[in-house]
Amino acid sequence: MNKILIIGGSGVLGSAVVHTLQTERIDFLTGSRNQLKKDSYSTVNQSTEIPWTRVDLVTGEGLPKALIGVDTVLHLASAPGKIGHEFFETVITRNLLSALKQSTVKHLIYSSIVGVDKIQYSYYRAKREAELLIQESQLPYTILRATQFHDLVDAALGKLMSLPIGFIPKKLLDQPIDVGSVAQKLYQLTQTGPQQTIINLGGPQVLDAGTLVKQWMRYRKISKPIIPIPILGSLMKSFARGEHTCPEKAFDSKTWETYLADRYGSR
Ligand SMILES: NC(=O)c1ccc[n+]([C@@H]2O[C@H](COP(=O)([O-])OP(=O)(O)OC[C@H]3O[C@@H](n4cnc5c(N)ncnc54)[C@H](OP(=O)(O)O)[C@@H]3O)[C@@H](O)[C@H]2O)c1
User: Fold this and answer.
1) Which domain of life is it from (predicted)?
2) Is 77 close to ligand 1, i.e. is its CB under 6 Å away?
3) Which atom of ligand 1 is nearest to the CA of 13?
4) pLDDT tens digits, residue range 205-226?
5) CA distance 77 to 226
């Protein structure tokens, strides 16, 4: 029996993991400050109750109780920003690690992002700090770094394209992945046990922003002029060099175009 606690089970990735564990009939509990609203995620089985307990990783509220009888913890809780002078991600990960040291948990799995060790961006630095805390903790762990989920790329393009003219850095690269494939990989890791390493997982294609936006406009039936903007600054240069992409491709993942077709209908 392998009981799983999904911390951050109400988020985008968390709800995809809920769906996967429901399908695989795995015993799990979700922990977060707010309960997952079943109808917000079409994939989640609407007819079964999603086991949930209130956990706040900042205050530690609910954590010792949530960990009772748990074998594997999926740490999917996250937010950008800081608490005082420290990254939010660092604080919540440290709090989780100290609670885990008092528990019987045998495997901690942390969801990170491809390129956090290379790209100078505050949220990525926070994720790297959290990874290092886990690696130095002596606890049995696996870190899964994934590339950007389709929903995130979709939302980012929605913002960039909200003006009458789209200003797009066409040469930026991205490797979007289906969140369901990341959930499937996390499920597999719960079954294989601690790997004591970092694993990368990327989408099936690396595309430039020009291609991403062209397909996005076609499926969204949006027509407006696009002005390419130059690649300026170290952050944009990192993204143009593809430092957040990886050779490890999830071939079971939908492509960007399939995601768009499924979400917005045929072009
Ligand atoms: N989105 C991407 O494209 C992407 C790509 C690669 C990796 N990742 C990583 O995958 C993980 C999940 O991302 P996501 O997009 O699913 O994020 P999300 O939708 O923003 O979900 C974040 C989760 O964290 C929980 N949370 C926040 N503060 C908390 C606290 N103090 N205590 C307990 N739970 C808390 C939230 O629940 P409550 O607010 O209810 O507490 C929510 O369930 C993150 O670590 C992210 O870095 C994301």
Assistant:
1) Bacteria
2) yes
3) 16
4) 999 999 999 999 999 999 999 9
5) 36
